[in-house]
Design goal:
heterodimer, A: mainly beta, Ubiquitin-like (UB roll), 5-stranded mixed sheet, 9% helix, B: alpha/beta, TIM Barrel, 3-stranded parallel sheet, 9 helices, globular, cytoplasm (chain B), thiazole synthase activity (chain B), thiamine biosynthesis (chain B)
Chain lengths: 66, 251
């Protein structure tokens, strides 16, 4: 299944979840937020939210700025 | 005690620091401590698995409240999504709303900013919008429920100081929410002037983080904000065209 994680094309197994997408980048869970197709996915829903073909996943954190 | 109050939250420091531009987290840490700041902005970006350390660790260690911004957004829609992501990631409904019009000037887009502010207020955010030095827009944003207004002194990172002190005074006169001078500060006298004009606080980053000695400049800014605030509270003498003797003239 083809998805995009932070702008990079990825091939993930069917049934992969938002939690799996986050885990592919980091083991951390705090200080991170996820949007799938421009909708915020609450942390409590990461495990239960399955990815679908062509999903655009953004995994963000705070950096120096402003 | 002369506290800054934003949305019911009290701060004893009137200097809000940004974290952008510091050469390292160590330098940033030293500058933050020297500034005495209690509220500090961060930006939201794609997670970089190779990034060494996190600005959040620094803020947590120093017990500084985090103020996420929406820097890099060009539309209200982008800013609203970024604010929601920041709320989820950082657990705060506070947001420095920043919607820029173009990359060259980084000037705020008033139409998109107002649109985003209305949507974020309706969604329960504590909204601190970055705006031009426009008294009418400042008033409209306050009416829309913003917790503060943050007019610029000059474009971001320019260090040009306060280009239109008169407009900043007009914004201060009309506002009943805190006015935070944001962007354009170059050196300590700019920060002092902002406070003398009646601003409730100053937000700056580049002037400290890109100074040759950030920690020393952070101390200078701290002193300038305190001095400017005291001068404002003290009430300055009126300006006169001619001298007024301070010693008795008669012998």
């Amino acid at each position: 299944m083809n998805v995009t994680i932070n702008g990079e094309a990825r091939d993930v197994p069917a049934g992969a979840t938002v939690a799996d997408a986050v885990l592919s980048l980091t083991n951390a869970t705090s200080g991170i937020a996820v949007a799938v197709n421009d909708e915020v996915i609450r942390r409590s829903a990461w495990e239960a939210t399955e990815l679908t073909e062509q999903d655009k996943i953004e995994v963000l954190t705070a950096v120096q700025g402003g | 005690m002369d506290e800054l109050v934003i949305a019911g939250e009290k701060f004893s420091s009137r200097l809000i620091m940004g974290t952008g531009g510091a050469p390292s987290l160590e330098v940033l840490d030293q500058a933050l401590v020297a500034s005495g700041t209690e509220l500090t902005t961060v930006a939201m970006r794609r997670l970089d698995p190779g990034a060494p350390g996190s600005v959040l660790d620094v803020l947590r260690r120093r017990d500084i409240k985090v103020l996420p911004n929406t820097a890099g957004c060009y539309t209200a829609g982008e800013a609203v999504l970024t604010a929601r992501l920041a709320r989820e990631a950082l657990g705060t409904p506070w947001v420095k709303l920043e919607v820029i019009a173009d990359e060259r000037t980084l000037l705020p887009d008033p139409i998109e900013t107002f649109d985003a502010a209305e949507r974020l207020v309706a969604d329960g955010f504590v909204v601190l919008p970055y705006i031009g030095d426009d008294p009418a827009l400042a008033r409209r944003l306050e009416q829309a429920g913003c917790a503060a207004v943050m007019p610029l002194g000059a474009p971001i990172g320019s260090g040009l100081g306060i280009r239109n002190p008169h407009n900043i005074e007009l914004i201060v006169e009309a506002a009943s929410v805190p006015v935070i001078l944001d962007a354009g500060i170059g050196t300590a006298s700019d920060a002092a002037l902002a406070m003398e004009l009646g601003c409730d606080a100053v937000l700056l980053a580049t002037a400290v983080t890109r100074a040759q000695r950030p920690e020393v400049m952070a101390s200078a800014m701290r002193g300038a904000v305190e001095a400017g605030r005291l001068a404002r509270l003290a009430g300055r003498i009126p300006k006169r065209r001619y001298a007024e003797a301070s010693s008795p003239m008669s012998k």
